[in-house]
Amino acid sequence: MMPFGVGRRICPGYDFAMFHLVYFVANLIWLFEWKHVEGDDVDLTERLDFTFTMKNPLRARISPRLN
C-alpha cells in the first residue's frame, strides 16, 4: 500500500508529486472561502470500510473569494 515505494526503489518523482500536492491544497485554501454547512454537526464516529472512515463525512460550503 505504498504507491511511491520505499528505500532504494522509491519513486524518483516523489518529491515533485508532494510539492504539487501541497501547492494544490494551498491554492484551494487561498482561492476559496470555506464555511461549514448550517445544521451539520461534526460527528467523529467511525465505520470500517477498507480503512476507518468517518460515518458522516464533513461537509463544507465553498465559494470563491471576491477580492
TrEMBL record:
Q: Name one GO cellular component term.
A: membrane
Instruction: Tell whether Cell cycle is among the UniProt keywords.
Output: no
- Nucleotide-binding keyword on record: no
What's the main place this protein lives?
membrane
What domain of life does the UniProt record list for this protein's source?
Eukaryota
* GO molecular function terms listed in the Swiss-Prot or TrEMBL record: heme binding; iron ion binding; monooxygenase activity; oxidoreductase activity, acting on paired donors, with incorporation or reduction of molecular oxygen
Query: What does the record say about its membrane topology?
Result: Single-pass membrane protein
Q: Which UniProt keywords apply?
A: Heme, Iron, Membrane, Metal-binding, Monooxygenase, Oxidoreductase, Transmembrane, Transmembrane helix
Q: Pfam families under this entry?
A: p450
Q: Where in the cell is it found?
A: Membrane
Hey, which family's this protein in? Belongs to the cytochrome P450 family.
Tell me the PANTHER family matching this sequence: CYTOCHROME P450 89A2-LIKE (PTHR24298:SF920), FLAVONOID 3'-MONOOXYGENASE-RELATED (PTHR24298)
Protein name per UniProt: Cytochrome P450
Q: What organism does this protein naturally occur in?
A: Solanum tuberosum
Q: What is the lineage of its organism?
A: Eukaryota, Viridiplantae, Streptophyta, Embryophyta, Tracheophyta
